[in-house]
Amino acid sequence: MSNNDITNELKLQILDQIPAPVMAVDKNMKIIYMNHHGKDLLKKEDSEIFGKLCSGVINSEHCNSEKCCMVNAMTEGKPFAAKTVISVEDKKIPLEYHAVPLKNKNGEVVGGLEFALDITERLLYEERLKEQSRTIRQMSTPTIKLWDGVLVLPVVGVVDSIRAQYMMESILNKITETYSKVIILDIHGVAAVDTAVANHLIKITKASRLMGCECILSGISPSVAQTIIHLGIDMTSISTKATLSDALSEAFSILDLEVREHKHEKSAE
């Protein structure tokens, strides 16, 4: 065996040691190499792989389409990467794959090399994180039915665009479910208000009114009030109250309800 043969065999052994599927094709998209991990992933023998069109072996969503990274890599002469899904024995496997052009000594593209990563566990982990994030938002942004026709949303912490969107969705859905006529946004737990937060609150107010529900903002601290004035934010479109108690009284007034003190009379002995 010549030194070149030994070197080539060593290279193939190295590719087989890579813990990810690796494949090479010629310019006609026929498979000329696949390592053990690739064969194991596809559950195919050598006779079903080598010399075959890769689209017939891999069965990817990108096969025979303009999204195919291998075709794009050989056409453009540069690396491409994307995510796709392959079908193996009626099972869908999500992959992240990278393709690079193979060139000869003259710099001419003679084929392509591709390696892939099974991202099933990563996607499951990301989905769990999203579910946890949704749960946390629900816990931190509860829309509560305080009275017949009256909702309250106590806001605590930082209000960013994502949370503001969830607040709006939560409020509008609750208005639809309860046919409420008043929603109180209590921001006593919001330490700071900037232009972005104020704009979010204004949008929530307008959206609520479109649903036939009046919105009252309560719990504005002295520091937040000064910040709003300093920033020149126009809050005239929002009904504001200093405390939640004042906001509830205003809500009762809007609903034409009256709260009276009930005195218990002592029975005569």
Distance from first to last alpha carbon: 119 Å
**How are the strands of the biggest sheet laid out side by side?**
2-1-5-4-3
Q: Rg to the nearest angstrom?
A: 32 Å
The CATH class designation of the largest domain is Alpha Beta
Please state the overall shape, judged from the principal axes of the Cα atoms.
Answer: elongated
Provide the succession of SSEs.
Answer: HEEHHHEEEHEEHEHEHEH
Given helix and strand content, the structural type is alpha/beta
CATH topology of the largest domain: Beta-Lactamase
Give the number of domains.
2
- Low-confidence region ranges: none
For this structure, the quaternary state is single chain
Q: What average pLDDT do the residues reach?
A: 85
**DSSP strand content:** 25-35%
Give a nutshell description of this structure.
With 269 residues, the protein is an alpha/beta fold. Helix content is 41%, strand content 25%.
